[in-house]
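[job 0412] stage=fold_complex status=start
inputs:
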Amino acid sequence: MFQELEQRISAAVEAQLAASYDLSLSVSLEQPKQSSFGEFAIPVAFQLARQLKKAPKQIAESIVAGLGSIPGVAALEIAGNGYINVRLDRAAYAGSLLRPSSRAPQSGGKIVVEHTNINPNKAAHIGHLRNAILGDTFVRMLRAAGRRVEVQNYIDNTGVQVADVVVGFHYLEKKSPAEVKALIDRPEQPFDYLCWDLYARISSYYKDHPEALVWRGDTLNAIEAGEGEIAELAHMVADAIVAAHLRTMLRLGVMYDVLPRESEILHLQFWAAAFELLKQRQAIFFETEGKNKGCWVMPASAFKTSPENDESAEDDSKVIVRSNGTVTYVGKDIAYQLWKFGLLGKDFYYRLWFAYPDGHQLWVTTDRPQTDKAPDFGAATEVFNVIDSRQSYLQDVVVAGLRALDFREQADKSNHFSYEMVALSPRTCVEMGIELSEEDKRRPYVEVSGRKGLGVKADDLIDKLIETAQAEVDQRHAEASAEERRRVATQIATGALRYFMLKFTRNSVIAFDFHEALSFEGETGPYVQYAAVRAGNILRKLQERGESLPDFDAVLTSEALGRQLASEDFWQLLLSASKVNSAVDRAIASGEPAHIAKYAFQLAQAFNNFYHEYPVLQETDAERRAFLLWMTRYFREQLLATLHILGIEQPPYM
RNA sequence: GCGCCCGUAGCUCAGUUGGAUAGAGCGACAGACUUCGAAUCUGUAGGCCGGGGGUUCGAGCCCCUCCGGGCGCGCCA
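[job 0412] stage=fold_complex status=done
writing structure:
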C-alpha cells in the first residue's frame, strides 16, 4: 500500500512536470526528516532550480498549484527552501490495510542463489554460518517479493581439503574404510568434529614433514580416478560431512534445492565443454613464452579495470589451464557458472538425497542417468554467488570469462554477493583458551583458521545459545514440560543467532564475541520475538476471557478510523507497521538483509511502545477498543511476516 | 608495489540515488512492575562523522591527498 501510494504520487508529479515544463524526469520521494512533516517529501524543486533558473520554493509552489487532487493524498505543503511535503488521507490508508489486496506476483525468470559451499572435510564454523544465514535470508527476501528462486549448495568433494582428511585417515591413522565407517556411525563423537581435529593434525604434520605432501598428490589422483580404497574413503568422508552440514544448517531453518558436486563436474566433462567454448571464442589463449609458458591463460585486460600497460598485462593474466594440462579452480568455476545460466550445453543427472521434515525435496547431482524425474535445475536469468569478499578477484575472473565468451547479458546478471569474514574478538579467544601473541592481543579481531583448528564450531555455538536461553525459559515457565521448554529455548536461541548474523551490513567484519552473541536484550532476535509474543498474549487473553474479536469491517468505518488516527501516535505506529513490503524492496535493491533486520527491530520497538502506552484490554470505549485490537492483530501479522523473512521462528511464549 | 574494503558517541554498529536539527543497541547514571508476565518501557549524559583540500544551493555520503587498520594479488582451493 505504502509503495503504491509512492508510485502514484511520483507519477502525478512527473505528469505535471511534463505538462507545464515539458520535462521528463523520474521523481523520487524521500522520507521526511521529521514525521511531523508528513509521510513523503519531494525534493524535485531543488533538482530543477538550476535548470529553470528559479528559486526552488517558487518552483515547488508552481508544481503544487498545478497538481490536481491525488487519490489517497490529503494535503501537499511547501516547506523549508522548497520541499513539497505530502500528507496522506489516514482513514483511506488504514481502510486499505484493513482490506488488503494481495501483492501482485511479479513475473520474471528464475534466480539462482548459491550459498553455504563448505568444504566437506570438517565441522561448519561461525564464518560458514554467516554465509548460510545471509544467503538463506536473501532467498527468503526474494521469495517474499514474488521471485522464483533456486538454492544451490556447491560441494567440492574432490578437492585438497577432503584429500587432506583422507590422508589423515589412511596414512596417519592407517584406518580402513570399514573402520572409518564405524567412526561415522559412532554416536558419542560427531564425525565432523573428529575430522576438524584430524584436519588440523594433518596440516601441522605437513609443516614438520614436507615430504608427506606426496600423500596429498597421490590421494588427489586416486580421488579423480574414482577407484580403490582411497577413493572410497573420500566418498564416505565427504558424504558424511555433507550430511552433518545439512543437519547443522537445518537447525537454523536453512534448506537447499540441489547440491551440485565437483565430482560430477569432473566425470561429466563439464570443463571440456567450457574449454572448447573458451578456445573457440578466443577468450583464452595458449602462452608460448614467459613465466606462463605452456598454459592457457585469460588476459588481465579481461578482468582488470585499471588502465594497464602491455608489460604488466602479461604478468597479471590468469592461468586457466596449467602447463601439465590440468584445469584450475577458476576454470571449473567458469564451467559451473555457464551451467547455472544454461549456457554450457550439458546438464547433470540428479537423484533425490532426502526430503526435509516439511516435505521439501533436496536433490544431488550424479553422473549416471536416473529413473526419478528431477525438477529442472539451472538455466537461471540471474545468479547470486554468496561468497566471502576475499574471493572477489576470482569472482571477477569468472564474470570476465562470461563476458569474453560474449555472454554479456549473463555477465551483467552474475552477482558476487560478497560479505566480510567473521573473526574472533581477542576476549573470546582468551575465553576459549587460544593463546595470543602480544601483537594479536592489540588487534580488534583475530582471524579463524581451519588449518589450525582455530575457530568456533557452529553446533557448539548453537548448543551454548540453547543452554543460555533454556536457563531463562526454565526460570519463567517452570510449569511447562521439559520438552516444550527445550523447544522454546531452541526457537529463541536460533532466532538470536540468525539476527546476530544479519544485523551487520555485509561489508563489515564481525568480531565474534560470545558475550554479545549470547545477549537476548536490546537489538536482538529475541527482542523482536518478544514483541510478537506480547501481541499474541493480548489476543489470547481476550479469548480466555470468553470474548472474541470484533467485526473490524463493521466497527471500523472510515469515520471511525479517521477519528482514531487523528492521534499522531496511532498514525505513526500504523504507518511504520505497514512498510514491510517497502522494506523488502529496499533491502533487495541494496542487497542488504541487514535492512530487514533493522526494520524488524524498529517494528518491535514501535509495538513495545504501543503495548506500554495503551492497555488494550482495559479500554472501555467500544470503538477505541476495536481499533486497539485491530492494531494489535495487524502488528502481530506484520511482525510475523518480517520474522519469517528473517528465518526466525515465533515461540508460543517467552 | 598494485587493487578492493573500513575509519561516525566510551564499546559495537546504522545512516536510502548527495537533502531539513547525524541515529540505534550496549555500557553509565536516574526512574517505572497490584499490569496485557519487565527478555519491557521512560529520561539524562555522551559527536570538529580519522586529518586537510575540492566539487555545489547543499557533503557522513562524490573527487583529490595524507594518516591509521584490514583483505586480496599462485601453474592452491
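[job 0412] summary: Residues 159-237 of chain A form one domain.
[job 0412] exit 0
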